[in-house]
Amino acid sequence: MSRFVLLFAPVPGLAAVASILLEIWDAVQLVESPKFKHETSSSFSQVLLFIKSQTYQTFLNRYFHRTAILEQITACNSQILAVENSFRGSVEIRTLQAVHDQARQLAKYEKLTERLLEERTDSSLVPSPSLATSSPVIPRTSASRK
Hints:
The protein has 146 residues and is mostly helical. The protein is built from 6 helices and no strands.
């Protein structure tokens, strides 16, 4: 369904709801998990079927069945919230894994840096062979120049 066409739907707010659902659906398409895709697509399919069924109802019919419609809206809302919680959990787990991987990589680099610094300090303390065998340099004073 085009978002433009939904502006002319007889149900108030349908264009806004459908627009939000279409944006969420676009984001869901980017998700890698097949289980999450199935759970999400079935939930959104049920919401879409509900919205489509409401577009064909007359105002009086919707008015007389408003409690049933409200129950259906509540059910759709709980399904979307369940999908959102599942998605949020998935994102949190991936974020936690990425942070853990970064911390492990940082610890690896810190150990490498410490080792390199220790090697550099150890090599600077040991005199080089050319300096150890050469004769000491005696500074010249003004008295030794005469």
